[in-house]
Amino acid sequence: xxLRSRLAIRCAKLTSILIKKMNRGSGVTLPGYVARIIDxxxxxxxxxxxxxxxxxxxxxxxKTTTNxxxxxxxxxxxxxxxxxxxxxxxxxxxxxxxxxSTDKRGHLDADYACIEVDEIASVNVLPQLKxxxxxxxxxxxxxxxxxxxxxxxxxxxxxxxTSVPDTTLIINCDDILSYSLAKDxxxxxxxxxxxxxxxxxxxxxxxxxxxxxxxxxxKLEYEFFHYGQLGIYHCPNCGFKRPDPDYTTTNVVLKDExxxxxxDGMHIQSTARTPYNIYxxxxxYAALRALHAPLQHFQxxxxxxxxxxxxxxxxxxNGARVQLHLSKNPIGFQQKVSLVLKDPKPKDIIIQxxxxxxxxxxxxxxxxxxxxxxxxxxxxxxxxxGTRRHDMGLRLKYEDIPCGSTTDLKQSVEDLTKNGTKxxxxxxxxxxxxxxxxLLNEMQKETEGELKS
Length: 453
Fold this sequence. Notes:
Layout: H1 3-21, H2 30-38, H3 42-47, E1 53-58, H4 63-76, E2 81-83, H5 91-99, E3 112-116, H6 122-129, E4 133-136, H7 143-147, H8 150-162, E5 168-172, H9 176-184, E6 189-194, H10 201-204, E7 221-227, E8 230-234, E9 247-255, E10 258-263, E11 266-269, H11 276-290, H12 298-303, E12 312-317, E13 320-326, H13 330-342, E14 347-352, E15 379-385, H14 389-397, E16 404-405, H15 409-419, E17 423-428, H16 433-452
Parallel strand pairs: 1-3, 1-4, 2-3, 4-5, 5-6, 6-9, 13-17, 14-15, 14-17, 15-16
Antiparallel strand pairs: 7-8, 9-10, 10-11, 12-13
């Protein structure tokens, strides 16, 4: 290793130590920036030290959970794996994941690297990382001020993928955009998809990013939609159609809030509470099969896997069941609305909407979500919170759904868990996720302490 690379690693590690000692954050982004300033090729240098394979996961929804499944599956086989587990998926965060995993001599001890990559950052990341496999979950609208309309994301991903022609693509062929991208590139690809209808009417909604043939422009015909533009499609003009997937799931059953399904000869009793996590499981499995990775322990791993990933957690506070959910774009939020509707019991809801750079400063996407379904959700109280709580309140007002607002989330949780339905849903967008998760964990500990005393 060159002296410059060693110096970059050493300075990055010192930066991380200083950040933590000063209590200024988790130290998973700035170290990568420091390393890249000293050695602009540090990511390429570090990636070459991975002994077996590097997998990147990209896409609008599901990439953090999917990347976590990949990581845990390989760990279950005794492999040493690098992951940017905090979701730091831009260039600096990815570099940090590598350099902070080195030993005192600056060497990596890793069989695999599982790296989540932001779609816009992929253009710069993939040429340096040169992954063996690139998994694409789906392409839909997300953070209009960062990504713009969906065609911009499509073109960015296409540029990234064509820069690494030896990378095998793992493609959700139910998504016309993802499958078209694979067809437009010269990379080899493997497809996965779900051929039976497992999403309800509320999940499917009317959010459609692209329902026109990418070859001839004709409006596609669908046998059915899963959600968004995902489904079983064909073009009545040129014959372009959704292929039979290389990997699929069958016999999907929801029982006692959990999904079971069959996949490649396995009957999986999963801990998944939402159907889109079946997609995440299927995509990870397809990627591992494509890489000929060991899979002897995959079934036992996935049957105990925590899909929450700090983004879908359940707490017990003051005797109430409190669920925390992340929703950061129209399709994601529509899935949460569906989840709420599946619960027939009386419930309270807090919706927190912020507009930081992480969230996207443009919150006009709220008008694309079919909130009218909440009127039939057996909801006792809805409160809005966050910097754009009034925008959220206005959106609900247009559906004639009464709501209040709060600037004190802790006090509102305290009130609703003591005096409410004992069934509280909290839905947040990105910047509020970890702060709210920490708050609820602390409140749960307080409850447990009171019970013990």
